Amino acid sequence: MKEKGSAQFTCPGCGFDTFYRYGRSATGNQRYLCLACGRQFTADGGRPVHSARPSCPRCGKEMYLYKREEGLIRYRCSRYPECRTYQKMETTPCPTITPSPEECG
Ligand SMILES: [Zn+2]
Ligand SMILES: [Zn+2]
Hints:
Helices cover 0% and strands 30% of the residues. It folds into 2 domains: 1-51, no CATH class; 54-91. It has no helices and 6 strands. It has a 3-stranded antiparallel sheet with strand order 1-2-3, with no helix packed on it. It has strands at 19-24, 30-34, 40-42, 63-69, 72-77, 86-90. Mean pLDDT is 78; it is low at 47-51. By secondary structure, the chain is an all-beta fold. It is flat.
């Protein structure tokens, strides 16, 4: 039984496809809040983004977000429990630019 599946777009930030409705934008479009990364966006904001979501290294199917931790997103194969492949992806919302002193060694 599938009740979900209405989402025809993915989060532009992380590729996850489950959202909260989050009011409306100034132009009256539905706004959404991504459950995975907390990003706010509108459904008509542009093209669907697929690249952020990894594909299963074992069977090639796309992976769904399984768990979100601080600085880390865990994905699980969409074929679970047939394919029990997990993958973790580090999240870097604000990449810090730190000058790295090079040392010969
Ligand atoms: Zn997101
Ligand atoms: Zn798989």
